Each structure stands twice: as C-alpha cells, then as structure tokens.
Amino acid sequence: MSRKSVLVIDDEDHGRVLVKQYLEPYADFFVAGECSNGIEAVKFINMLEPDLIFLDIQMPGANGFEVLQRIDHVPDVIFTTAFDKYAIRAFEINVIDYLLKPYTKERFDQTMARLKSKPAALPQLAMGTFSSPHSYPERIMVEHQKRFKNISVHDIMYLKADGDYTRIYTEETSFLSSFGISVIAQKFDPAKFVRIHRSVIINLDYVQELYRDIGKTYLVLDNGLEFNIGRSYLPVIKSFIV
Q1: Residues 198 and 116 occupy one common structural domain
Q2: Are 15 and 56 in contact (CB under 8 A)?
Q3: Residues of 181-206 as b/e, b for ≥16 C-beta within 10 angstroms?
Q4: 3-state secondary structure of 70
Q5: What element of type H or E holds 116?
Q6: How does strand 52-55 pair with strand 76-81?
Q7: Which residue has the higher pLDDT, 20 or 142?
Q8: What residue numbers bound the domain in which 15 lies?
Q9: Which domain of life, per UniProt (predicted)?
C-alpha cells in the first residue's frame, strides 16, 4: 500500500510541530509540506494534492472554512483549533475529526483510528453531499424580488457559488440564495446534483456531453454552457460513465 501524503496547516509553529511529532509513528503517512496561513494553504493543497490535511481555523489570509471553499483538490480534513464554537459547522461538511487544542497523543490516536476506519467512497466534500435521514424535496422556496418563489428542483440546471452566497440557475432565470453552496447541496439528491468544481454543482438531467481538451475535461449543458471539471471531482463524474 502506498503511503499517504499529509499537509500540516497552522499559523503557530508549535501547532505544526505537534502534529508532525504525533504523526511520526504512523509509517503509512508522510508530511509532504506545511503552511502558516490560508493563502499558502490553498496554493499548496492544489499543487501537492495531499491525501490528508490537518487544518487550523483562525489563520491570516483565509480561515480554515474559506480555504475549503477555494480549493480544487479535496483531501480528507482534520481540523485542529483552540476554539470549540466551530465544531458543529465543521462536522456539517463531513470532516474526519475536530481536534480541540490542547489535545493529547491519545486523542490524536483516536482521530487517526477514525480516519483509518473511514469507508472507501467518493469524496463527500467533492460531491457536496451530506448524510440525511429524510427524502429530498421536489420543490424549494427561493427569494426573488423581496418574495419567495416556489420552484421545482427539476428546473434547476446548475448552482454556482457567489462569494458566501449561491446563485441558482434555471433555463429562464437565476436566483440568489443567502446560503453557501455546501449548505444548499444538502437539500438536493446527490445522485442527480453533482459537484464538478468547488464552486459549481450541476443537474445531471441537463448534461449534454463531456469532452477532453489539452489534458482537461469539460462538461457541456443543454444550453451550450461549458464547465471545466476540477481534478478532484473527476472520480465523481467517472462513476456515472458506463
């Protein structure tokens, strides 16, 4: 089995050192690099494409959640932070664990055990999916001209992140939701609405074709609109190819 690469991201030196020390006994993991701010983190995650990141939340440049919104490559994520107030939000995006500083070696080992027991699957962050005990709605209410319009989920062609908000596109118009794209993704069936980029989710019902050009894969919708599929999201798309 090949060793898994790790990127350690923390604005404090001792935070990075501690992760590296605790990780030493795990021979199947190696530290590929480290970052001290959010801007570096986005750059190195996309460049090194690590299997796992240990990610601080409050950092200069971009916080941990902003880093995850900006990356194209989607690794497994373990948060390491001194603040417990972000825990619920963290688990809503299916991170492996939330290490609250100061944590012990025993607590770190519990996290690694959780990581190793994670079932092999398509990356949930990449797909923008979340476990849900309920069925997916056929219709949703979206704000439009100071009112809420009732639209069919089937009419949605794609969704695109717009800063901290999300633009929802139908064939006729678009709507701006005040929720982030990962939150909205929870409402839709992941077998139909698929994330192809950190900022784009498409409805498979409107996909016309795929094609490759100069090493990149593109998806074309029925209206002719094209999207470049992020490298981390290709396995999701390939799972629909027979």
Answers
A1: no
A2: yes
A3: bbbbbbebebeebbbbbbbbbbbeeb
A4: helix
A5: helix 105-116
A6: parallel
A7: 20
A8: 4-120
A9: Bacteria
Distance CA 9, CA 57 (A): 9
CA distance 209 to 225: 11
| Residue written as token pair 């990141």 | 53
Residue 201 lies in a domain: yes
| C-alpha of 100 from chain center | 21
CB 192 within 8 A of CB 204: yes
How far is residue 93's CA from residue 77's CA, in Å, rounded to a whole number? 10
Count of C-beta atoms within a 10 Å radius of residue 102: 10
Instruction: Give CA–CA dist 168/153, Å, rounded.
Output: 10
pLDDT in tens, 33-78: 999 999 999 999 988 989 999 999 999 999 998 888 788 777 889 9
- Quick one: tokens of 182? 């990962």
Hey, what are 197's tokens? 């980029």
Q: Which two tokens stand for residue 34?
A: 């480290």
The pTM assigned to this predicted structure is 0.56
Structure tokens at 231: 């490298």
What is the amino acid identity at position 157?
Answer: M
73 and 178 together in one domain: no
Nearest to 78 by CA among 10, 27, 24: 10
Q: Note whether 113 and 162 are same-domain residues.
A: no
Q: Which residue has the tokens 């935070």?
A: 15
In degrees, rounded to 5, the angle at the alpha carbon of residue 117 between the alpha carbons of residues 27 and 136 is 140
**CA distances from residue 97 to 59, 108, 120, 128, 200 in whole angstroms, order as listed:** 19, 10, 16, 18, 26
Two structure tokens written together for 195: 């994330």
